[in-house]
Amino acid sequence: MRHLLSTGDLSRDEATLILDTAAELAQVGDRSVKKLPTLRGRTVVNLFYEDSTRTRTSFELAAKRLSADVINFSAKGSSVSKGESLKDTALTLQAMGADGVVIRHSASGAAHRLANWVDGSVLNAGDGTHEHPTQALLDAFTMRSRLGRLDGLRVAVVGDILHSRVARSNVLLLTTLGAHVTLVAPPTLLPVSVHTWTCEVSYDLDAVLPKSDVVMMLRVQAERMHESFFPTTREYSRNYGLDGERLSRMPEDAIVMHPGPMVRGMEISAEVADSPRCTVTEQVANGVSLRMAVLYLLLSGS
N or C: which end of the chain has fewer CB atoms below 10 A? Predict the structure, then answer.
């Protein structure tokens, strides 16, 4: 494995190796000194064309814990905003000798293009509405550590599937790892091609909740919506929002997940967001271990 561009590229064994490696690296996070010398002398570039606090910080922390040198390259105020092409930026990074490039870009497929232009490893940190592989991996890691398994788990992914790269990456990965995924959304928020995905589709959240081990709520991505996809936010919440009453209808040990940032009161109520069954802060902590694992496997050269 030289790049991580899509969860669809991972075999079951490769995905499991990443999760197992993350589990070992998570123990480092419990020590007083959290650093390992593993990637000393390697350079990781964070190339973010879209705003992202969580993912960028998580990758930065992961690289630093492995003792890599980290360069944060924010597209705002850089030569990128002056109109430099992705290819020219890539050639610049190449000339600087970047060993790994973490890229987030609003264009689907940007990470794949970058992989053709640089010698280092490319990690897709989100490309358009296409994929976000490390998010799916950290979600799978969180499910496995909370529920003890992935094989046979019933996972409901709820909300704005249409604009969600998290949903696509999760369907591909979870299916590979043996889980059953059901997408729950209004018809207007499902991709046209959803019938080709390896999952079930439902428009009825209340019917799906009682038989789900994991319910993953997605943020409604207002910034990607240029027309109206549902009548009002109130109506959306009534049909597809997770509140305490709905939580009580889920199986006792079922968990609630959210890739963040949460819009409290929209897709998830404050009561559910703050409940011990909600794994949002765990997902963030697991994200660092998982991204350490991916950087280690791609860049350590062992």
Answer: C
